[in-house]
Design a protein that fits this description.
FN3_sf, repeat, immunoglobulin domain, Immunoglobulin-like, 5-stranded antiparallel sheet, disulfide bond, 0% helix, mainly beta, NRCAM protein
């Protein structure tokens, strides 16, 4: 098997889900056989927004021939990772380079896990929601937009409310009675808005 590990391993984080890794080629005489390529082992150490999973799954990408760089796609935003690189010949793999740590930046969150609308009265509705399954960063706020829908399914003016990230319910007041409303709801990190969920609800006609 090869005798030495690739040296000077460098990681360039391109965005929240993609990184590029570089290494110096090993001297050919240390390959002790036919150089088949390089393998990059990488794994997520922990998410920076929640406790890490106990199970660490190592992923392996193989780059054929005498390449000295490769892309690592499909990373999770706002996480810390480690990687190492090994050279491969027809017999097997050489020793691993020292582990190199890197972090991915924040991304946009997934949609809130649910939006439930309860307690309709003449002029109010109660909204409850769950935080995103994948915050992908530090949540800064929720954005609620809503508008009335009239009997011919035309949409009325859109109202937007920004809600602090630590809230999980809201009572909307001063609504029109016996009116259907459509709601659009999403979470935000410093990077931007995640995908929204929509819901409809109706205020009651009379007490």
């Amino acid at each position: 098997v090869p005798m030495v590990a690739p040296g000077n391993v460098q990681v360039h984080v391109i965005n929240s889900t993609l990184a590029k890794v570089h290494w110096d080629p090993v001297p050919l005489k240390t390959v002790r056989g036919h150089l088949q390529g390089y393998k990059v082992y990488y794994w997520k150490v922990q998410s920076l927004s929640r406790r890490s999973r106990r199970h660490v799954e190592k992923k392996i990408l193989t780059f054929r021939g005498n390449k000295t760089f490769g892309m690592l796609p499909g990373l999770e935003p706002y996480s810390s990772y480690k990687l190492n690189v090994r050279v491969v010949n027809g017999k097997g793999e050489g020793p691993a380079s020292p582990d190199k740590a890197f972090k991915t930046p924040e991304g946009v969150p997934s949609s809130p896990s649910f939006l439930k609308i309860t307690n309709p009265t003449l002029d109010s509705l109660t909204l409850e929601w769950g935080s995103p399954t994948h915050p992908n960063g530090v949540l800064t706020s929720y954005i609620l937009k809503f508008q009335p829908i009239n009997n011919t399914h035309e949409l009325g003016p859109l109202i937007e409310i920004r809600i602090p990230a630590n809230e999980s319910s809201l009572i909307l007041k001063n609504l029109n009675y016996s009116t259907r409303y459509k709601f659009y709801f999403n979470a935000q990190t410093a990077v931007g808005s995640g995908s929204q969920i929509t819901e409809e609800a109706v205020t009651i006609m009379d007490e």
